[in-house]
Amino acid sequence: MGNIGGGLVFLVFALVTVFSAYLVISSRNIIHSALFLILTFIGVAALYAMLDADFLAMVQLLVYAGAISIMVVFGVMLTLRGGPENSNGDTRNAIGGAIAALLTFVVLGMVIFTNSAWLTTGTGISGGSTVSDVSWLLLTKYVVPFEVAAVLLLVAMVGAIILAKGVDDSK
Amino acid sequence: MNYALLAPEITLAIVAVVILAIGLMIPKGPHKGMVPLTILGLLLTMGVTGGQFAANVHGTFLNGMYYADNYASFFKLLFLTAALLVVLSSTEYVQKLPAHRGEFYALILFAALGMMIMAGSGDLITLYIGLETMTISFYVLVAYLTEDGKSSEAGLKYLILGAVSSAVLLYGISFVYGLTGSTVIAEVASSLGSSISPAIILALVMVLVGFAFKISLIPFHMWAPDIYEGAPTPVTAYLAVASKAAGFAALTRVFLIGFQQQVYGGSPEVVLAVLIAVTMIAGNLMAIPQKSFKRMMAYSSIAQAGYLAIGLLAGDQAGVKAVLFYAMIYVFANMGAFTVATLIANAQGSDQIKDFAGLARRSPFAAAVMLISLLSLAGIPPLAGFVGKFYLFSAVINQGWVSLAYIGFVMSMVSVYYYLSVVKTMYMEPGEGLPKIGLGGASKFTLFVTMIVTLFIGIYPTPLAQMAISAAKSLIR
Fold first, then answer.
1. pLDDT in tens, A103-160
2. Does pLDDT of A166 surpass 80?
3. Rounded to a whole number, what is the distance in Å from the CA of A61 to chain B's nearest CA?
C-alpha cells in the first residue's frame, strides 16, 4: 500500500470502522447499536480486503456481517422489554472511561508510531489464492490449533445447550 | 511429523468425547456409572503421560509449534491429578445436581485437555486456543447451577472479564507478531535477540496482563472472589488449582523461552516483582475479614499465586523447579480443603466459615484433613507447603531478591491467622444442631490421598523434587 490512493481508501474505511464502533456504544437505541455493529464488521472486512486477505474478508462478511449480526438482532428482539427507546442505558462512568481510553490511546500511539521495527511486508506462502494458502497452513503447520479449535467449538456448543436448556425438561 | 508425541492429548480428547457420548446415551438417572469411567479415562491418560515422562521424551512437533518434553508432561500430570481429585470429590455433589450430570465430567475433561495444550504449546496461537478451550469449559462449569442466581452471575462475570483479558492477551500477541513475524515462541526469541524497545515492552506487558488475569495476580484479581464464591464448590477447587497452574505453565514457557533476554535484568522484571509483592501483601490481608470459606480461599489462592510467581521471577532452573514443586503440592493441599468444603456444602447447603463449627466432633477425619491442608497452605513444617515455600524463597534469594523473600515470609505468617481461624471454628466451637457429616467412599478416598501426599512430601520431598528438577531441566538446558 505505497500509493496515496491506497492510503486514502484505508483512511476512509478505518474512520468508518472506528466511528461506527463508537456509535455502537454511544447509541441510546439498542437496535441502532446492532445496526452500527454490522457497519463495523463491514469496515473491518474492507480492511482485510486491502491487506490482500480476500478469503478472510469474505468470511468476515458472511459470518460476522451476515450470521452474527442476525443473531444479535434476534437476541435483542427476544430479550427487549418495552420499546427500543433508551434501551441501551447510560454509562455512568463515561468520563472515567474516556480518560482511561484517551491515556491508552496516547501511550499506544506513541509506542506504535515511534517504533521503526515493524515488519510491514509479509511474504505470501505461494502464488495461489489465499483460500488454498489458508487451507494448506491449517492442515500442516497449524494442525494442532486447528484440531483443538474443533474441540473448542464442541465445548462451546455443549455449554451453550446446557446453559440455555436449564433444568426444566432434562432430569 | 511424529503424532506419537501428541499421544496424551489425543487420548484425553477421545476419552472426553466418549464420556460426552455416554452421558447422552443415559439421559436419566444419577449417572453413577460415569465416575468410574471418567476415572478410568483419566488414569489411562496419566499412564500415557507418565510413560512419556519416564522415557524422558523430548520432542518438538512441526519446528517448535508444539513440545512434548518433561516440563509439559509434569504439568499434564498435575492437571490430570487435579481433574481426578475433582471428579472423586464431586461424586456426591454431582448426583445432587438438578440436570446435565453426564456433561459435567466431559467438561472437566475438556478443560484438562485445554490446559494440556497450554502446557505443551510452543506457539502463541496454539497456546491461545488451548487457553480458550480451558476457559470456555470453565465458563460453563462456573454457571452450572442454572437455578442459582449466584452461579449464573459468576458465570456471566467470568465470561465478560475473561473475554477482556483474552483481548489484551491477543493484542499483545499481535504486537509480538508484528515485531518478529512469527508466533512460534522459539522463533520469537531468536528474532528479538537481545534487542529491547518500547514496543517490545508494551507487548510483554500485555501478554503478562493476559496471563496475570488467569493466575489472578493483583490488580487483575477482581473476578476471583465473586466467581469462586458463586461457582459450584468442586469447580471452585478445579479453577483454583488447575486453571492457575495452566496459566503458570504457559507464562513460564513464554517468558523463559520467548522473552528471556527482555524480561530478566530489565524493567519488565521490576514490574513483575512489584506485582508479586502487592499480590502477596494484599491477597493475604484481604483474606482476613472474609466470612465465606470460598471467598477466603479465593484471596488465599491470590496470595498463593504471588508465592508461585516468585519462582517465575527467579527465572532459573531452581526457580522453575520450585514453581513445579509448589504447584503440585498446592493441588493436594487445596483439594483437601475444598473436598471438606464440598462435603459441608452438600450437607448444609452453605459455605460460611461458621458452618464449619464443631466439625471435629461431627467428622473428625474431615476436620483433620482440613487442618493439615490449611497448615500446608500456610507453610508450616513438616508439611509439604513448607518445603515448597523453602524452594521458592531460596530460589529468589539466589537471584538477589531478598526483600521479596522477606515479604513472602512475613505474609505467610499473616496467613496462618486466617487459616487457623477456620481451625478454631472446627475444633473450639460446639456447632450445636448442625448435622453429622457422612463421608462417601470417593470423598473419603480423596481426603485420604490428599492427606497422605501432603504429609509424605513434607517429610520426604526428594521424589517429587527430582521429578520437578527433571522437568525444569527440559525447559532450561
1. 999 999 999 888 877 776 655 555 567 788 888 888 888 999 999 999 999 999 999 9
2. no
3. 21
DSSP 8-class letter at B292: B
- Looking at residue A2, what DSSP letter applies? -
Domain assignment present for A47: yes
Q: Residue B176 in contact with residue B183, Cβ under 8 Å?
A: yes
Residue B273: its pLDDT value, please? Answer: 93
* Cross-chain residue pair A117–B107, CB shorter than 8 Å: no
Running DSSP on this structure, what letter comes out for residue A60?
I
Q: Has residue B35 been placed in a domain?
A: no
A51 touches chain B (CB under 8 A): no
Check CB contact under 8 Å for A119 and B61: no
Quote the CA–CA distance of B340 and B362 in Å, as a whole number: 12
Q: Is the pLDDT of residue A1 over 60?
A: no
Q: Identify whether A9 is part of a domain.
A: yes
Enter the C-alpha cell of residue B115: 490446559
Residue with grid cell 483474552, as numbered in its chain? B166
Q: Whole-prediction pTM value? A: 0.93
Which residue among A114, A145, A154 places its CB closest to the CB of B129?
Answer: A145
Q: Which residues of A touch B137 (CB under 8 A)?
A: 155, 159
Choose, out of B12, B108, B110, B138, the residue to mutate when testing the contact with A (most A CBs < 10 Å): B110
Instruction: Write the pLDDT tens digit of every residue in B2-18.
Output: 888 899 999 999 999 99
Q: Supply the pLDDT for residue A170.
A: 47
Residues B137, A155: C-beta atoms closer than 8 Å:
yes
Residue pair B133/B142 in contact (Cβ under 8 Å)? The answer is no
**CA B142-B146-B148 angle, 5° bins:** 90
Q: Which of residues 92-121 of A touch B (CB under 8 A)?
A: 107-108, 110-112, 114-115, 117-119
Count of the separate structural domains present in chain A: 1
* C-beta of residue B91 within 8 angstroms of C-beta of residue B75: no
Of B133, B143, B197, the CB nearest to A148: B133
Distance CA A131, CA A145 (A): 18
Reply yes or no on whether the pLDDT at A171 is more than 50. Answer: no
Residues of chain A contacting residue B98, judged by C-beta atoms under 8 Å apart: 167, 171
The CATH number that applies at residue A53 is 1.20.120.1200
pLDDT in tens, B382-438: 899 999 999 999 999 999 899 999 999 999 999 999 999 999 999 998 878 788 887
CA distances from B372 to B88, B287, B340, B437, B461 (A): 19, 19, 12, 18, 16
Domain span at residue A160 reads 2-101+128-165
What is the model's pLDDT at position B284?
94
A and B: number of Cβ contacts within 8 A? 104
The answer as to whether A110 is a domain residue is no
Mean pLDDT score of chain B: 91
Tally of domains within chain B:
1
Among the partner-chain residues A119, A163, A166, the one whose CB lies closest to the CB of B181 is A119
Let me know if residue B172 belongs to a domain: no
Q: How far does the CA of residue B140 sit from the closest CA of chain A (Å)?
A: 5
What are the φ/ψ torsions at residue B419 (nearest 5 degrees)?
-65, -40
